[in-house]
Amino acid sequence: MLENLAIINSIEDQRSVDFTGKINLLSIKGQHLGELIFIDGEFVSSIYKESSGLKSFYNMLIDSYDQLDIKFIVEPEIIENPNRNIHFPYSILLKKAAQIIEKYQYSRKNRPPEGVMLRLNADFVSSDIEVTPEEYSLMTVLIDFHDVKSIYKNCGLLDYEITNALVGLRKKSALKVIATKK
Description:
The structure is a single chain. By secondary structure, the protein is an alpha+beta fold. The chain has seven helices and seven strands, in the order H-E-E-E-E-H-E-H-E-H-H-H-H-E. Strands 4-3-2-1-5 form a five-stranded antiparallel beta sheet, with helices on one face. Helix 3 (90-107) packs parallel to helix 7 (159-171) and helix 5 packs across helix 7. It is elongated and about 55 Å long.
Protein backbone atom coordinates (compact mmCIF):
# COMPACT_ATOMS: atom_id res chain seq x y z
CA MET A 1 0.00 0.00 0.00
CA LEU A 2 2.60 2.59 1.08
CA GLU A 3 5.31 1.36 -1.28
CA ASN A 4 3.33 2.80 -4.21
CA LEU A 5 3.44 6.35 -2.83
CA ALA A 6 6.03 8.53 -4.53
CA ILE A 7 6.60 10.55 -1.36
CA ILE A 8 7.53 7.39 0.57
CA ASN A 9 10.07 6.52 -2.13
CA SER A 10 11.53 10.02 -1.90
CA ILE A 11 11.73 9.85 1.90
CA GLU A 12 13.48 6.49 1.73
CA ASP A 13 15.92 7.79 -0.90
CA GLN A 14 16.88 10.69 1.40
CA ARG A 15 17.22 8.42 4.40
CA SER A 16 19.52 6.05 2.46
CA VAL A 17 22.04 8.82 1.70
CA ASP A 18 22.01 10.39 5.19
CA PHE A 19 20.37 13.51 3.73
CA THR A 20 20.26 16.77 5.68
CA GLY A 21 17.73 19.29 4.44
CA LYS A 22 14.06 19.31 3.60
CA ILE A 23 11.56 18.04 1.11
CA ASN A 24 9.21 20.89 0.22
CA LEU A 25 5.65 19.81 -0.51
CA LEU A 26 3.88 21.87 -3.18
CA SER A 27 0.51 21.83 -4.89
CA ILE A 28 0.50 21.50 -8.67
CA LYS A 29 -0.02 25.28 -8.81
CA GLY A 30 3.15 25.76 -6.76
CA GLN A 31 1.51 26.65 -3.42
CA HIS A 32 3.66 25.63 -0.46
CA LEU A 33 1.79 22.93 1.48
CA GLY A 34 4.49 21.91 3.91
CA GLU A 35 7.88 20.33 4.42
CA LEU A 36 9.62 17.27 5.76
CA ILE A 37 12.94 17.89 7.54
CA PHE A 38 15.85 15.44 7.76
CA ILE A 39 19.10 15.52 9.69
CA ASP A 40 21.74 12.95 8.70
CA GLY A 41 19.04 10.77 7.15
CA GLU A 42 16.76 10.88 10.19
CA PHE A 43 13.24 12.18 9.62
CA VAL A 44 12.74 14.76 12.42
CA SER A 45 9.95 17.15 11.47
CA SER A 46 6.78 17.41 9.42
CA ILE A 47 4.62 20.41 8.63
CA TYR A 48 1.66 20.07 6.27
CA LYS A 49 -1.42 22.23 5.71
CA GLU A 50 -1.14 24.24 8.92
CA SER A 51 -0.54 21.24 11.17
CA SER A 52 2.68 19.75 12.41
CA GLY A 53 4.06 16.54 13.79
CA LEU A 54 2.42 13.17 13.40
CA LYS A 55 -0.95 14.57 12.30
CA SER A 56 0.66 16.49 9.45
CA PHE A 57 2.72 13.49 8.34
CA TYR A 58 -0.22 11.10 8.34
CA ASN A 59 -2.55 13.60 6.63
CA MET A 60 0.09 14.18 3.95
CA LEU A 61 0.27 10.44 3.36
CA ILE A 62 -3.52 10.22 3.18
CA ASP A 63 -3.60 13.03 0.61
CA SER A 64 -0.87 11.25 -1.35
CA TYR A 65 -2.82 8.01 -1.10
CA ASP A 66 -5.93 9.83 -2.38
CA GLN A 67 -3.75 10.83 -5.32
CA LEU A 68 -3.99 14.53 -4.66
CA ASP A 69 -1.33 16.12 -6.80
CA ILE A 70 1.53 16.93 -4.47
CA LYS A 71 4.90 17.83 -5.93
CA PHE A 72 7.99 17.62 -3.82
CA ILE A 73 11.33 19.33 -4.18
CA VAL A 74 14.37 18.00 -2.36
CA GLU A 75 16.39 20.89 -0.97
CA PRO A 76 19.71 20.14 0.73
CA GLU A 77 20.53 22.72 3.38
CA ILE A 78 22.12 23.04 6.77
CA ILE A 79 19.47 22.65 9.45
CA GLU A 80 20.42 24.22 12.74
CA ASN A 81 18.23 23.65 15.78
CA PRO A 82 15.27 22.06 14.03
CA ASN A 83 11.89 22.19 15.69
CA ARG A 84 11.72 18.44 16.12
CA ASN A 85 8.15 17.17 16.15
CA ILE A 86 8.69 13.56 15.04
CA HIS A 87 10.13 11.37 17.78
CA PHE A 88 9.43 7.84 16.52
CA PRO A 89 11.67 5.64 14.41
CA TYR A 90 10.70 5.71 10.74
CA SER A 91 9.83 1.99 10.71
CA ILE A 92 7.23 2.59 13.45
CA LEU A 93 5.82 5.58 11.52
CA LEU A 94 5.35 3.41 8.43
CA LYS A 95 3.56 0.65 10.34
CA LYS A 96 1.23 3.17 11.95
CA ALA A 97 0.71 4.92 8.59
CA ALA A 98 -0.47 1.67 6.98
CA GLN A 99 -2.98 1.19 9.82
CA ILE A 100 -4.18 4.79 9.57
CA ILE A 101 -4.69 4.62 5.82
CA GLU A 102 -6.70 1.43 6.25
CA LYS A 103 -8.90 3.10 8.88
CA TYR A 104 -9.18 6.19 6.69
CA GLN A 105 -10.39 4.11 3.73
CA TYR A 106 -13.12 2.67 5.92
CA SER A 107 -14.24 6.01 7.42
CA ARG A 108 -14.04 8.39 4.45
CA LYS A 109 -17.47 7.42 3.14
CA ASN A 110 -18.91 8.86 6.37
CA ARG A 111 -17.12 12.22 6.19
CA PRO A 112 -19.64 15.07 5.99
CA PRO A 113 -19.39 17.69 3.21
CA GLU A 114 -17.20 20.69 4.07
CA GLY A 115 -20.09 23.16 3.85
CA VAL A 116 -22.12 21.59 6.66
CA MET A 117 -22.42 23.61 9.88
CA LEU A 118 -22.71 21.68 13.15
CA ARG A 119 -23.48 22.56 16.74
CA LEU A 120 -23.56 20.57 19.93
CA ASN A 121 -27.02 19.79 21.22
CA ALA A 122 -27.32 21.59 24.57
CA ASP A 123 -29.48 18.80 26.02
CA PHE A 124 -26.74 16.29 25.24
CA VAL A 125 -24.06 18.38 26.93
CA SER A 126 -26.01 18.43 30.18
CA SER A 127 -26.85 14.71 29.98
CA ASP A 128 -24.84 11.88 31.49
CA ILE A 129 -24.33 9.96 28.25
CA GLU A 130 -20.75 8.70 28.06
CA VAL A 131 -18.45 9.80 25.28
CA THR A 132 -15.16 8.43 24.04
CA PRO A 133 -11.97 10.48 24.48
CA GLU A 134 -12.06 11.27 20.73
CA GLU A 135 -15.68 12.44 20.96
CA TYR A 136 -14.80 14.64 23.94
CA SER A 137 -11.85 16.14 22.07
CA LEU A 138 -14.11 16.88 19.12
CA MET A 139 -16.72 18.44 21.40
CA THR A 140 -14.13 20.92 22.66
CA VAL A 141 -13.42 21.96 19.07
CA LEU A 142 -17.15 22.28 18.30
CA ILE A 143 -17.38 25.02 20.92
CA ASP A 144 -15.36 27.37 18.70
CA PHE A 145 -15.72 25.95 15.18
CA HIS A 146 -18.92 24.90 13.45
CA ASP A 147 -18.23 24.32 9.78
CA VAL A 148 -16.85 20.91 8.88
CA LYS A 149 -13.78 22.31 7.11
CA SER A 150 -12.73 24.29 10.22
CA ILE A 151 -13.46 21.35 12.49
CA TYR A 152 -11.10 19.08 10.54
CA LYS A 153 -8.47 21.83 10.35
CA ASN A 154 -8.51 22.75 14.05
CA CYS A 155 -9.02 19.41 15.75
CA GLY A 156 -5.88 17.64 16.94
CA LEU A 157 -7.27 14.24 15.98
CA LEU A 158 -6.45 12.50 12.72
CA ASP A 159 -9.06 12.85 9.96
CA TYR A 160 -10.47 9.34 10.35
CA GLU A 161 -10.72 9.84 14.13
CA ILE A 162 -12.67 13.07 13.58
CA THR A 163 -15.02 11.32 11.16
CA ASN A 164 -15.58 8.43 13.57
CA ALA A 165 -16.18 10.86 16.46
CA LEU A 166 -18.69 12.83 14.36
CA VAL A 167 -20.53 9.61 13.52
CA GLY A 168 -20.51 8.56 17.17
CA LEU A 169 -21.82 11.92 18.37
CA ARG A 170 -24.48 11.97 15.66
CA LYS A 171 -25.69 8.51 16.74
CA LYS A 172 -25.94 9.80 20.33
CA SER A 173 -28.00 12.80 19.09
CA ALA A 174 -25.26 15.13 20.29
CA LEU A 175 -25.03 17.12 17.05
CA LYS A 176 -27.39 19.41 15.23
CA VAL A 177 -26.95 20.34 11.59
CA ILE A 178 -27.65 24.07 11.62
CA ALA A 179 -26.88 25.01 8.02
CA THR A 180 -25.36 23.92 4.76
CA LYS A 181 -23.16 26.33 2.82
CA LYS A 182 -23.36 26.21 -0.94
